[in-house]
Design a protein that fits this description.
- By secondary structure, this protein is of the alpha+beta class.
- The protein has a domain of 94 residues: Gcn5-related N-acetyltransferase (GNAT) (Aminopeptidase, 3-Layer(aba) Sandwich).
- The chain contains four helices and four strands, in the order ααβββαβα.
- The protein has a four-stranded mixed beta sheet.
- The protein is globular, with a radius of gyration of 17 Å.
């Protein structure tokens, strides 16, 4: 995912090296999953797509799904879901893996009564944006990024 983000942004934004990024992401996933496991109601799920007939095979992709309280402004229900990460192996892209993971995440949220969910995507990732739009996501908030030094140039 890190190399993909680096390529998408043409090094316009700083990207961590792969080992550091994965170490941080893994730590975050473990924290979410451990917190979820200790709670009365689960709040995080790691969904994996594996090749049919190969339960021990290398995953084709994964999705990290988290649920939290809805914010105070929008009437989105008590809880909202976040598709925090969706990663599909490069050789499996375009084969329906991302759509299958989104469907599994949607079913997980529906079982828990969650009405709305969101996903963040790098603006330059046209392929991911197209996938999310096909799956019913629409722009809602725009996140803008700047260095602290960039007031007027």
């Amino acid at each position: 995912m890190v190399a993909h983000h680096r390529a998408l942004t043409a090094d316009a934004w700083p990207v961590r090296d792969t080992e550091d990024a994965w170490s941080r992401r893994r730590r975050q996933y473990v924290e979410w999953l451990e917190t979820s496991a200790a709670a009365a109601q689960p709040s995080a799920w790691l969904l994996a797509a594996v090749p049919a007939g190969e339960p021990g095979g290398a995953p084709l992709g994964y999705a990290m799904l988290v649920v939290g309280p809805s914010g105070p402004t929008w009437d989105l229900g008590e809880l909202t879901g976040e598709l925090e990460s969706l990663a599909v192996a490069e050789d499996a892209r375009g084969c329906g893996v991302g759509g299958a993971l989104i469907a599994a995440a949607r079913a997980t949220l529906r079982e828990r009564g969650v009405l709305h969910w969101y996903v963040g995507v790098v603006g330059a990732n046209a392929g991911a944006i197209a996938l999310y739009e096909r799956e019913g996501f629409r722009p809602f908030f725009v996140t803008m990024l700047s260095t602290v030094e960039d007031a007027t140039g």
